[in-house]
Every structure is written in structure tokens, then in C-alpha cells.
């Protein structure tokens, strides 16, 4: 099977200081890979390096990226989005003054796709007339996920979906990712710090420390407990 996304030799640095070293991944269709690691381990830089979107003037990235079997010469978020890859960024921006429905309609190619996507988010269905600024943190993340999904991506990169949210909400969001991989065949790479919630839904795990993947494998193959004790500490 060809991977939906392959990354090799990804390096990211800020003002010449390395933040990510020789990162590699293969994402198969319909699978959910969780990237775990402490604050500052390099998760955000990895995801941003893949899409060629580093903050400010100081970030530089290099590497080889293949999306749906085609090499991507100079990655940038817009080109990649057109080619089937969406990034849901950390603390993503939704338009707080617009209602949920207006935002969905802005991006949805047609009504059918909007309704199809909303099937996954019953809570959003109940909040269609509400301005996004009034949504709870979890609902906002659902909206961000739904907006990304409207474009029918084949690859979804997700940064810290669970940031600042209660465990029950995190579990719900993780279940959404699982279903999107299962039902829509999307290849998902999600960086997160909610270890037990992430492990409950993942097919594969990558553990990052100090800018490098220090352990990875399928759930069941990896000595998850040992690795997590060493690199993440117990929460
Ligand atoms: P977090 O959970 O805090 O987002 P992370 O695992 O995503 O952490 P990164 O944010 O990618 O980690 O940070 C990796 C390294 O790069 C850290 O040492 C960080 O200080 C550095 N770094 C990140 N962004 C910048 C930046 N804009 N300028 C300079 N250094 C940065």
C-alpha cells in the first residue's frame, strides 16, 4: 500500500538552532498516528515544517515530502491544501463573530457535504446559529475539525486538539479523529499531550524528545509504558 503522506529527513531550525532533526513518517490511508512528547519536544515545529509554514522570519525547514505519491517540491499550506492535506493548527482561529453555520457554509462546496460533515458532530448541529466566540473550547475544536473536513482532505495533521480541555471532552475529540480515519479513510497525524486518551484511539505512536523521534511503533508492538515513563513522565 502506498502511504498517503511520506516525510523523510525533515529538519527544522530557528536562527540556525535545530528544533527538529531527521524526522520521518509514513501515514497510511485510514490510520491514526499519534505524536506524543513534552512541551518543546518539537511536535508543532514538525507539523509546521511538513506544511512549510514556520512562524516569523527565523524558521527554516528542509526535507522530502510525498503527498499521495507525488513529491512536493516547495511545501506551502495553500498548495498542500489543494492537493489534499489540511493542518488544524494549535489554538486555531475560527471567526468568533460568525455563526457556526455561516462558517461552514463559507467553506462547504455544497449543502450535501455540509450535512455529511455535520453528521460527525451532533453537538455542532445544535449550535449552528451560535457565534463561534460563544462556543466552548471543545466545540471550537469540533468546528475547526469540521471546517478542515469540508475540503475532503486525504491527509489531516492536527496540533494539540486537546489543549486546555477536560478529559471527557478530549476523549470525545479523539473518538472523532478515530471515526474520520475509519469512515473516511483519512490518514491522520495528531500531536498531543493527552497520553492515555491518545493511546486509546491510535494505531501507531511516535514519541518525540528534543526534536527527534525517540520511539515509535504500532500499538501493541511498542513498549508504550516504558517509553512513556522515560520520555513523558507520568501525569
Ligand atoms: P508545544 O507543546 O509547547 O507546542 P512542541 O513539542 O510543539 O511544544 P515546538 O513548539 O515545536 O515543540 O518547539 C521545539 C523547539 O523549537 C523548542 O526548543 C522551542 O523553544 C523552539 N521554537 C519553537 N518555535 C520557535 C520560534 N518561533 N523561534 C525560536 N524557537 C522556537
TrEMBL record:
Pfam hit, one: ABC_tran
KW Metal-binding (keyword) present: no
ABC transporter domain residues: 5-235
Alphabetical UniProt keywords: Amino-acid transport, ATP-binding, Nucleotide-binding, Transport
Gene3D superfamilies xref list: P-loop containing nucleotide triphosphate hydrolases (3.40.50.300)
Record-level GO BP terms: L-amino acid transport
PROSITE patterns in the cross-refs: ABC_TRANSPORTER_2
Stored InterPro entries: AAA+_ATPase, ABC_transporter-like_ATP-bd, BCAA_Transport_ATP-bd_LivF, P-loop_NTPase
GO-annotated molecular function: ATP binding; ATP hydrolysis activity; branched-chain amino acid transmembrane transporter activity
Similarity comment: Belongs to the ABC transporter superfamily.
UniProt protein name: Branched-chain amino acid transport system ATP-binding protein
Organism: Aeromicrobium choanae
Lineage: Bacteria, Bacillati, Actinomycetota, Actinomycetes, Propionibacteriales
Amino acid at each position: 500500500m502506498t502511504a498517503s503522506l511520506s516525510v523523510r529527513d525533515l529538519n527544522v531550525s530557528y536562527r540556525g538552532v535545530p528544533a527538529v532533526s531527521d524526522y520521518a513518517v509514513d501515514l497510511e490511508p485510514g490510520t491514526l498516528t499519534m505524536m506524543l512528547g513534552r512541551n518543546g519536544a518539537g511536535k508543532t515545529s514538525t507539523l509546521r515544517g511538513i506544511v512549510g509554514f514556520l512562524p516569523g522570519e527565523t524558521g527554516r525547514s528542509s526535507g522530502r515530502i510525498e503527498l499521495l505519491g507525488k513529491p512536493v517540491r516547495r511545501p506551502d499550506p495553500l498548495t498542500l491544501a489543494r492537493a489534499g492535506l489540511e493542518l488544524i493548527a494549535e489554538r486555531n482561529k475560527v471567526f468568533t463573530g460568525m455563526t457556526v453555520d455561516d462558517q461552514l457554509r463559507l467553506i462547504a462546496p455544497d449543502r450535501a457535504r455540509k450535512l455529511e460533515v455535520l453528521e460527525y458532530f451532533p453537538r455542532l448541529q445544535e449550535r449552528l446559529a451560535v457565534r463561534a466566540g460563544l462556543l466552548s473550547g471543545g466545540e471550537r475544536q469540533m468546528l475547526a475539525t469540521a471546517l478542515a473536513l469540508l475540503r475532503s482532505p486525504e491527509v489531516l495533521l492536527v496540533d494539540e486538539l486537546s489543549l486546555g480541555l477536560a478529559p471527557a471532552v478530549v476523549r470525545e475529540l479523539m473518538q472523532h479523529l478515530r471515526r474520520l480515519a475509519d469512515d473516511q479513510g483519512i490518514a491522520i497525524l495528531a500531536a498531543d499531550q493527552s497520553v492515555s486518551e491518545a493511546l486509546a484511539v491510535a494505531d501507531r505512536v511516535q514519541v518525540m524528545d528534543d526534536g527527534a523521534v525517540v520511539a515509535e511503533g504500532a500499538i501493541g508492538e511498542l513498549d508504550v509504558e516504558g517509553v512513556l515513563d522515560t520520555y513523558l513522565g507520568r501525569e
